[in-house]
Amino acid sequence: MKKLTKMVSVVCMTCLLGTLAAGCSSSENGNTSSSANPAAKPVTYTMFFNYGIPEFPDNGGEAKAKIIAQMEKAGVQGVDYKISMISGDEYKTKLNLLISSGEIPDYFNVDSTQLAMYVDQGLLRPLDDLLAKAPNLMKFIPKERFEGVTFDGKIYAIPQGVRTESFNSPNTAGLLVRQDWLDNLGLKQPTTLDELHTVLKGFTHDDPDKNGQDDTYGLGGNKATVFNTVFGAYGIGLMSGSIFWTEKEGKIVKSFVTPEAKQALAVLQQWYKEGLIDPEFPVMEPKQGDARIINSKVGVFEGDAFGVNAIGGGYYTSLLKVLPTAKITMINRITGPDGKKGWPEVNPYSGGALRAISVDAKDPERLIQMLDWSVSDDANGGVNLLTYGEENVDYTFDETKNLITQKTSYSDLYAKGFSNPVRFVQVTDRRWTDNTVRAALEIASSEIVKNEWWKTVPAELDYPDLEKKLWTEYFVKIVTGVWPVDRFDEFVQNYYQQGGQKIEQQANEEWQKSKN
Amino acid sequence: MIRKSWGERTFEAGNMLLLALLSLVTLYPLWHEISISLSSAAGAMRGGLFLFPRGFTLDAYKSVLSSSFIWLAYRNSIFVAVVGTVLHVLFTATTAYALNKRGLPGVKAMTLLLIFTMVFSGGMIPTYLLVKSLGLTNTLWALIFPGMISAFNVIVMQSFMRTIPEEVEESAMMDGANPLRIFFTIIMPLCKPVIATIALWECVGLWNNFMQALIYLNDKKLFTLPLLLKEIIAGQQLATDSGQFTTFAAESAIAATVIVSIVPILAVYPFLQKYFMKGTMLGSVKS
Amino acid sequence: MSHQVKVPHGALMNTGSKSRSSAFMKSFHKHKYYYVLLLPGIIYFILFKYIPMGGIAIAFQDFRIAGNVFDSPWAGLKWFNILFESPDFWTALRNTVIISFYKLLFNFPAPIILALLLNELINGAFKRIVQTIIYFPHFVSWVVLGSILFSVFSVDTGVTKWLGLSTSPIMNPELFRGFLVGSEMWKEVGWGTVIYLAAIAGVNQELYEAAKIDGANRFKLVLHVTLPSIASTIVVLLILRTGQILNVGFDQIFILYNPLVYNVADVLDTYVYRVGLTMGRFSLATAAGLFQAVVGLCLLVFTNWLVKRMGERGLW
């Protein structure tokens, strides 16, 4: 009985919202939508995203009417949305509970582990037929990204898209240096591993901040740091999310078993022993690593191209408050002894970027129409409205510079009901960046080392501790000199014995298949 | 007044010194949080130890307290804490009192079944499905009923009740009072210290209950303080991560929320504290 | 109990059972008020504790998140085999037992001693202030305390140098377990005094008066009056504590551990978190939880037996 009343009320609500939306649009848009397309009964899509945005109103805010109106102008009729959000690990907990009690949302975030699990349990709708009708999604989402979300030949999730400008590359990381310290010591920006070594020695021992105290380190880091620069200089991409597969003699192996990895570890251990690396990096949370940067304790560190943005609110902004003469720049990739250099590519389908449609979603054709509209650049397309709000009210767009200037703050945009929550499909869009950041992004997207194989093979689920624990333990203990570099061989042996053999075999089988 | 011996005085001075030191050490985390919550973005992000706020600003508090849902969240949390604590104490006490009757048929089996629930639990998903089928999801009762009695507290209360001299109860029986009457008019008043303890535990537990609020509540109007504060923190972190300029750091927001949620508990404590003082029992036994 | 009331009526019922049942009815009648008091507890525990316990079945299934718990295919002891065959599981178990034992040894008595010391304070205002302050760390999460501890013991501050260490104890496998014990004591010792202070408040004052007349000094009063009076509370809490022997505090260790101390710090909870929960393997996590519960129950039963043999009153 209770269920019935609930259902009736839901149906009523849906009808009501539908008529409201139709009413709105008809007043704006002489040609009434409901009469033009009587078949299109209004549908409310429930959406659940992994975000912490407390400002976003439960009912979608003032933006919703504008969004629906523009959608109807573009020919997407009778669609409404209800978005709820929870951030972090709790998102997964809540999503699992919703699914287990049969309240699965129509459209929601998944990460790659969840994706595999839900596909296996038949919870997601295959999207191939729908995507065929979505030209804009196909235009903005790079083809290779679909590979990672394909199971048994069918696509099960919508990966993150990328706008066509070069500064939208997903690869944003690189090596950041305190330019003012280089200038103080009369050093050039390092380009090779040897030059970097010299710079690190100078930064550690020669009082680069001129405060008369021996209180600085060359290379900073934190728990999550893998020192990609050094591994890249030996020609391998170590990891980004998971350890990379690298091609060796016609087959693929995990890059952490290669001799190059050993060479890189040897270099890092030497630097650590010479006191050039912040000795507490293995126990520092990222924010504690940032504190070292802000306190001018470290001069070289891995970071994001946005880190060179002085007004971004990150560590650079805080550093300038403490020391107005400081300057952070991103330097070109460091070349190793054999002329190699590079940086591991970002997992194109990681984190919050994947979104899936429930197998129970009503009228999925209309949902995909809406998603397609949401990334469209056309006159009535959704991308600018959803991302930045209303033109000239919330943002201005300088077409010659291709620069978007936000006038409304993010929290106000959220409160109105715009921006991230309603960017139904995420498409990387950095038209708001200035030239300094764009230059750094240029560097960060260069010399990218590819991961030969992105998909998780079944054996990896059975032996999850190989990367999370076995490797991190050897990595940290070798770098910090607790163990000699030669124990790397023991690591390789352990890895293969404790399941690595099986993982490698399975991955190679699939990799060979994919090449044919 | 007997004059204190030299040894006794040394002990007293040493004891005071020791406890004062301990207070200093345990005070630091709160002091740290207060300082960070009042620091500017740059000040808070410099990390390390805080003796004073760096770059004083109230922006973190302004942001936390400006959420249109904060007062509603306070109200919801107070409702859950007060109603939940009252029900918890009452039913824990009734269960403990009845289970303490050794002659009661079935009491040993029930005690064992009670202890069993402390070690084994069905886990989150089955409990969620149960609460949902009872129609409690998205109500504040979902935070109260599933934890209404705890086996641990029943046992703690039982052990306290055993210290009450049996004559007290027997003489009341003689006067013709039934067990319900004895329970409410004699046992409960004698149990004030342990009731205060369990009330404090439970009140704090309910006040800080994040996980259940997360899984059972959907409507923002029903959000309790920990859930809302968590969302505010997440919003601040998202802002920092996506490179937006803010006048305070995510750490300051976290610290401000710690302070904001700790203050009401500190306000409650003095009312309970008198029950932890020596001599409360004596008075009530005599009367 | 209710099922005993439902004695079948009819031909089979002989006089013996009739008299038994009427004796029972009499006993029930005599105790009816106690059953009234018990009723909410019985309903609560059946509804909210025993019905969801069906979820333990997940440990023996290949659990699927959608649909009824019992729709998932059965897996037998698969997950237990995976656990018991992994060498990391045994390392984690060993670490769990060691850390838990240290915590029991040091952190169980600490609040008792502190409560006794607090009780000896003469100055009421000072006592109240101390009592309030020492609760504070309990209200602060391990995430925050973790960053405070990191800062305090960082080489920068000089605390490590003062202690004669070259690196932070967080990075030192030999000191890490001690660090866990110490930091937990710092966080919880004050809060732990609450129950003992309540127990001390319940001690009959006449006992003190009598002992004073016999010429007992303060130390003897504590030893011969206070401690025996709160012994039953201590014993009960000790028994309950042993039931949790394999639950060693996930948050604290998860926040503080790092690759340098994995071999001494990886415990069951962190192991299960990595290989079970983050991989979406609920069945594995449930199986591990069941293992912890069974071990806990065995120890609880054993301690209770031991306590009773030593002449104290146990839990049952």
Outline the structure in words.
Chain A has 516 residues and is of the alpha/beta class. In chain A, 42% of the residues lie in helices and 15% in strands. Chain A contains 21 helices and 20 strands. In chain A, a hairpin with a 1-residue loop joins β9 (239-240) and β10. In chain A, α1 (2-28) crosses α3 (63-73) and α13 (286-294) runs parallel beside α14 (315-322). Chain B is built from 15 helices and no strands. Chain C is mostly helical and 316 residues long. Chain C has helices at residues 2-5, 15-50, 78-85, 87-107, 109-119, 124-133, 142-152, 159-162, 173-201, 205-213, 218-242, 250-256, 262-265, 268-277, 282-309. Residues 1-16 of chain C have low confidence and may be disordered. Chain C contains 15 helices and no strands. Classes of the chains: A alpha/beta (516), B mainly alpha (287), C mainly alpha (316). Chain A: Residues 1-21 form the signal peptide.
Give the secondary structure arrangement, pairings included.
The complex is a heterotrimer of chains A (516), B (287) and C (316).
Chain A: H1 2-28, H2 33-36, E1 43-50, H3 63-73, E2 79-86, H4 89-100, E3 107-110, H5 112-120, H6 128-131, H7 135-140, H8 144-147, E4 150-151, E5 154-155, E6 161-162, E7 173-178, H9 179-185, H10 193-205, E8 217-219, H11 228-233, E9 239-240, E10 242-243, E11 245-248, E12 251-254, H12 259-273, H13 286-294, E13 298-304, H14 315-322, E14 328-331, E15 343-344, E16 354-357, H15 364-375, H16 383-388, E17 395-398, E18 403-406, H17 410-416, E19 427-428, H18 435-444, E20 448-449, H19 458-462, H20 465-479, H21 487-515
Parallel strand pairs in A: 1-2, 1-3, 6-19, 8-13, 15-20
Antiparallel strand pairs in A: 3-16, 4-5, 7-13, 7-14, 9-10, 11-12, 17-18
Helix pairs in contact in A: 1-3, 13-14, 20-21
Chain B: H1 6-37, H2 41-45, H3 59-66, H4 70-99, H5 107-119, H6 124-133, H7 141-144, H8 151-161, H9 166-174, H10 179-190, H11 192-207, H12 211-216, H13 225-241, H14 250-273, H15 280-286
Chain C: H1 2-5, H2 15-50, H3 78-85, H4 87-107, H5 109-119, H6 124-133, H7 142-152, H8 159-162, H9 173-201, H10 205-213, H11 218-242, H12 250-256, H13 262-265, H14 268-277, H15 282-309
Keywords (chain A): Cell membrane, Lipoprotein, Membrane, Palmitate, Signal
Protein name (chain A): ABC transporter substrate-binding protein
Signal peptide (chain A): 1-21
